[in-house]
Amino acid sequence: MASGTLYLIPVPLGPVSPDTCLPPDTLAVARRLEYFVVERAKTARAHLKTMGHPQPIQALQIEELNEHTPGTAIPPLLAPLKAGRMSVCCPKPAALRWPTLALRWSWPRIAKALQSPR
């Protein structure tokens, strides 16, 4: 089974230029991706636009994963990752110095789904 790469890209709390708070390598990776798993699609689209994603935002595949997402919906969200595509999970908007806290509710669910043989 092929496996992709999961990138965790932090999202700033407010209207901050991504160039001032994210390293250039992180921005370069995010601009190459086409599949995103995010907490809120609307916020993610705005962040990707500010980030200067080269593709039209409407052409990107953006799926939501938040505290309301049932556990049964997580494996399909990760299917592209398991199939070998690069994917990104933008954690809940949080102060960049606390990304672990931002993932406390979603990361265990993601990790469990990635370990599943399905």
Chain-wise SSE layout:
Layout: E1 6-8, H1 18-21, H2 24-32, E2 35-38, H3 41-51, E3 61-64, H4 74-82, E4 87-90, H5 99-102, H6 107-115
Parallel strand pairs: 1-4, 2-3, 2-4
Number of strands: 4
Strand content: 5-15%
Rg result = 14 Å
CATH superfamily: Tetrapyrrole methylase, N-terminal domain
Q: What's the number of domains? A: 1
Averaged pLDDT, please? 76
Structural class: alpha/beta
Give a verbal description of the structure.
This protein is 39% helix and 13% strand. The longest helix is centred in the middle third of the chain and has 11 residues, at 41-51. By secondary structure, the protein is an alpha/beta fold. It is globular, with a radius of gyration of 14 Å. The model is unreliable at 92-105 (pLDDT under 50). A four-stranded parallel beta sheet has the order 1-4-2-3, with helices on both faces. Helix 4 crosses helix 6 (107-115). It is built from six helices and four strands; from the N terminus they run βααβαβαβαα. The protein has one domain (6-115): 3-Layer(aba) Sandwich (Cobalt-precorrin-4 Transmethylase, domain 1).
